[in-house]
Amino acid sequence: MLRRITATRLARPVLIGVVVLCSVLAYSLSTSLVHPTRVHAAGALPTNDADLGTGVIYQVMLDRFFDGNTANDDPAGDTGLYDSTKSNWKLYWGGDLQGLTDKMGYLAGMGVTAVWISPPVDNIHTAAVYNGVPNAGYHGYWARDMYKIDPHMGTWSDFDNLVNTAHNDGIKIVIDFAPNHSNPNDTGEYGSIYENGTFEAAYNNDPNGWFHHNGGITDYNNLYQDEYYNLADLADLAQENNSVDSYLKGAINQFLQHGVDAVRVDAVKHMADQTGGWVRTLSDDVEAQGPHYMVGEWYLSNISDPTYSDAVRFADNSGVNLLNFPLNYALRDVYANNNGASELDSVISQEEHDFTWLNDQANFIDNHDMPRFLSVNNNDTRMQEALAVTLGAPGVPIIYYGTEQYLHNDTSGGGDPYNRPMMSSFSTTTTAYQEIHDFSTLRQNNPALAYGTYQQRWMNSDVYIFERQFYNSVVLEAVNKGSSSYNISGLYTNLPTGSYNDYLGSLLGGGTNITVNSGGSVTPFTLGANQTSVWQFTAGEPSTPEIGHIGPNLSKPGDTVIIDGQGFGSSGTVKFGSTNATVNSWSSHSISVTTPNVAGGQYSVQVCTSSCSNGYLNSVSSGAQVAVTFTVYNAPPTNVGDNVYLTGNDAELSNWSTTTSTAIGPADDPNYPNWFIMASVPACQTIQFKFIIITSSGSVQWENGSNHSFTTPCSGTGYDNVTWQN
Known about the structure:
This protein is an alpha+beta fold. 19% of the residues lie in helices and 27% in strands. The protein is built from 14 helices and 41 strands. It has an 8-stranded parallel sheet. It has a 5-stranded mixed sheet with strand order 26-33-32-28-29. The longest helix has 16 residues, at 242-257. The relative contact order is 0.11.
């Protein structure tokens, strides 16, 4: 985005204890002590389009990566927006789809397993002028036609070639999709939107209501402004409009048909309530085409941000995971701004408690909307330390293009657009390049990083030692950002008894061996200044099935879901609660099943062979989803802190729940005392609902009278207006 139930949560595997058998030791100790050859690994863990945690995502701004075809630098029909001198940072500089295709081997060699590309759709052809400076949509977020490839990027043929080349190198393609808006509303093309060249609407020519006409956001703490005003001067699309809904879903489906594996959704905070709203219907539409990983941008600062709990609820209910901004904030605080390491432990511990699927959320140290790490602290070692935590912590790691080459431009503090310089080197020998490769190899071979739990093991202001564990597989990581060495005593681990070499060797100043004694104590050792070390144990194939991941985390009956883990054998059954699912394919590490015909809700899923696996939480919708805007007129007077919520008779409407963390809302009240909210509900069904008021003290005031009844549309969007029943 352009910015200016049990004691153990079942989504996390229930560990059966680390009882180390002789056979396990014989299998693993010899291999776990050897530093891997630095070549692109095929990987031992399963990979599929809904599970990207077994590797590394690389984020690319296409225009700034590599110019593979100079013929499209200033293409016919869209001329005048290219700057060959690269002096105007707001114009195209030549990078394109062919350029990324040409460098796919470079990415594969780094261990990249997925590439997130900036939106390649057709952007404005007329410059937007700000302060006399022409601006182009080189970044991809100023769409005019979401059904066409931008001519500066190439053609659909170039896109298909990119996808095929990536897949041949074992790399998935993550498409960036920006359904919140079109382009600037007051300059350039004035928000104009086309479908395959046919004009649909403009902000200043909008008879059919494609856009919200409320002006720009002035208060980002105002829920209604966040969702229904223009973000950063961009024409805000009205997803509740049936034509807009159809347009957007048709656009993303076209990319899925061209082989895209995953979707990054821009600005989800500005389209959805906490349970997903329209975005949940988008996720439902995407997953109907097959399992895909989805991640969205809900911008917030840290876990104290007033929208943090809303973001968590969105990730747990919408089918769309989140870019982990609180962890990003902590990583930059600790390694760029020299805060104490305890900030990282506090954030991860809190998030592990809050998120149902923490390992699906995405981690990063910087991106296209913030100054690069090295612009904040121009210290390569500190950046490498921050990368090591990003690559080892719970979640899916994302590397912003050029990080491995220490790319940065510090003009005006390094923010937009100076955080988007042209890629200047493709060296395969930098320390960061090798670091990313080694961690990616480990992620592909040791399930502790992709699927494991988190535990802080030893910490002071400089030293951060944490452990990841999936059953008997363990990774222990130590990072010392200080200029002094530390004697590490009193350290305990779940690594089996034995001696371990540093998995990273001397790459990050390490090479330290450790000895694990009976009971898990580690013989005291010295962790050197600015040293990062990793010790790991990869267990052998278990005799009991162990689920590590199920994707997507939200499906509906009839959808396909993929279960990843180990010890599945060659056949068995899969249960959603007590209901068996139809098995489509089965291997020792990955099972494809069809979501059974169960009621909407959250289920503990198990794989059963001669014995049954851990339970893993997975959510099921009541059916295909549509977005319906519910409005209640003349609600009773409310005081500051009181809000109106929606509750009803199915899982999407919270099954008549009445708390602020479960009911749907809060609703918006731009025309008080009338309130409205857009909710994702099952299509083609008759539902019952009521509005309630939840006061600041938590008390609940219900509408009187009978339940409201509404038959939802079978496709598209809908509206239902009621008057509060006194």
